[in-house]
Design brief:
There is one protein chain. With 171 residues, this protein is an alpha+beta fold. Helix content is 20%, strand content 51%. It contains two helices and nine strands. Strands 2, 3, 4, 5, 7, 8 and 9 form a seven-stranded antiparallel sheet that branches. Strands 1-6 form a two-stranded antiparallel ribbon. A hairpin with a 4-residue loop joins β8 (144-159) and β9 (164-170).
Length: 171
């Protein structure tokens, strides 16, 4: 009776397994590595097949600095940022310059914007927002200098199939 309650452990040779602890650890690590590889491949495939479409555009942006003052407006270098949603997709630099009194300074800048959409397909119309600020001084009567800030805030709709700007609204 005492023999039946004894430890029921049988050595590896008796129960049919012929491995030592080192081999079983290596097999467990190999199984974990294979499982991680399967997850990684699955995630990569999901990203590739579920990835958002992207856009990449270049266009000429005509910027006008209208000076209604009775003196020249000298402004420093600045930039205009372009956003799609809340993500910046482009930036263009405006060089420092001067707009003469009661005139409009015309600046044509080459802009490149690129980004991705959150949709599964590229929308037919992409809405971009552009914002910029010029800081400078107006000289009145060749004597008095007054600090001025000019702000630009525009929204433009771009047709992706026809590759044209549909509308531009600035404030």
């Amino acid at each position: 009776m005492a023999d039946k309650n004894q430890n029921q452990y049988h050595p590896a040779e008796v129960n049919g397994y012929h491995r030592n602890d080192q081999e079983s650890l290596q097999d467990a690590e190999e199984a974990r590595r294979k499982k991680k590889m399967k997850w990684t491949i699955g995630i990569i495939a999901f990203v590739i097949f579920q990835g958002s479409p992207s856009f990449n555009m270049a266009f000429l942006a005509p910027i006008r600095v209208k000076n209604t003052n009775w003196g020249p407006f000298k402004y420093g270098a600045s930039n205009v940022t372009f956003t799609y949603g809340d993500v910046e997709v482009g930036r263009v630099n405006i060089p420092k310059s001067k707009a003469n009194f009661k005139s409009t300074k015309k600046i044509n800048l080459n802009v490149t914007v690129s980004g991705t959409t959150s949709n599964s397909t590229l929308p037919s119309v992409i809405t971009l927002k552009s914002q910029g600020e010029l800081k400078g001084k107006v000289t009145v009567m060749f004597m008095f200098k007054k600090n001025k800030i000019s702000r630009m805030n525009c929204t433009m709709d771009i047709d992706t199939s026809e590759k044209v700007v549909k509308s531009v609204q600035c404030s």
